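Aim 2 progress. For 3-oxoacyl-ACP reductase, the working sequence is reproduced below.
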Amino acid sequence: MKKTAIITGASRGIGKAIAEALAKEGYHLALFCHKNKDLLQNLAEALSNEYHIQVYTYCGDIADSDFTIASCKDALEKLGQVDVLVNNAGKASIGLLTDMSVDDWDSMIGTNLSPLFYTSKVVVPAMVSKKSGNIINISSMWGTVGASCEVAYSATKGGVNSFTKALAKELAPNGISVNAIACGVVDTDMNSQLSPEEKSELAEEIPAGKFCLPEEIAQVVLSIINAPSYMTGQIIGVDGGYI
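Predicted structure tokens for this construct:
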């Protein structure tokens, strides 16, 4: 039986790991990225060749509603259905709130929060029509407790969590699950601004004693997909015991 998924922010890091995990399970994929067109295309070709699946790629600004909505509609048409939507695309920024420009604030909201609305607006009607589906939003532990010098990032991820809980209540009667993964420190390019010494010090603060691997988040995604639809509206912490 055909299985399909849309994944945003899929060219590297967590999104790439999720794409690889779902491809291994036989999912046909629609993968989105912002600028890494070559990386995304190489990933798509590798997954298609290895797992004999269909993979469609879309490169553009996820914060652009016209691009995201049109691309999701095209992906839905090509895939025929969407069983899983993974909203993973995001960006981070470290610095004092008073040093942040209005444009930077708007960009953070536009990248981290608004796309959940754009993608869901397209995908939800198709899921409702077949009375099943999984929407998984990649969030952060800072969306739960907030982080100093990451006010905008924390605010967007807090919004992701509230979006998740509210949409879950809206879609539960239709058998559709909506959950979020509140990631801790994951070993991706998002943390590339940290020096080796800073990474080592940060790892020591985490009870698990290490950064999370993108592949571990991908395994949690698979666990959510395989869980009963009764598990919905949950913010699942994967932070090594950090908070």
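The first strand starts at residue 3 and ends at 7. This observation will guide construct design in the next reporting period.
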